[in-house]
Amino acid sequence: MGYLRMRLTGFKKTIILFLSIAIAVFAIANIPVITRQGVSGLVTEKKIPLYIKACSFLDRDYQYRNLSRRITKGTRSGKEKLAAIYAWTITNIKELPSGFDVIDDHIWSTVVRRYGTPDQKAEVFTALCSYAGYESFKARLSIEGITERLILSFVKVGEDWHIFDLRHNKYMAKESDLEKVTPYGPTYNDYLEMMDKNLYKRRFRRADKQKILSRIAYEVRKIFKGNQGAYLTEE
Fold first, then answer.
1. What is the CATH number of domain 50-230?
2. Do residues 50 and 67 make contact, with C-beta atoms less than 8 angstroms apart?
3. Digit-coded pLDDT (tens) for 135-187
């Protein structure tokens, strides 16, 4: 009887521990968090359970990784991979139709919609390059007196940075290409001279923050050092 009583007591403790953990997990999973969406410059916020946001993030991470692999399948060199991702982005992400609202939320939403602003097209390209294993970012560059900003994408293969202008379907394959005149008047080099060179050194770019481990590292660093410590980058 004593042995049976001890077994029952141990069983009860196990049940209580299991229920306590389950309740704690349920409570944490349902903590309300904020998600934001911009529509033509107007940003709205809504609260959703933490588990919904986490599951959506994991799903997007899988979708990015799977798409990047499919696009670069059969390629070998870094340049071949970039060319494949570039061609896919140009072909599949169309310009925002006239009269449509500009929807700004997740980069993956642009992939699903298959259209976006030049800025969003550059974000899709750099995110897919990041998932292919290459450091990448986009930048909006401006020159005083010119209204239009030039949106360029930068991808590092080995020790070299490759520069792309997806809006105008231009790939700067060699140094002389940077001397070409942009549709806005100045050359590409003119814009690059105005660029903050620290962008090449920054960490946790938006393209990187789509990935699980990078996002966790970013959030942890932000807790301890704030946005300054997190090295927020693209403009």
1. 3.10.620
2. no
3. 999 999 999 889 899 999 999 999 999 999 999 999 998 889 999 999 999 99
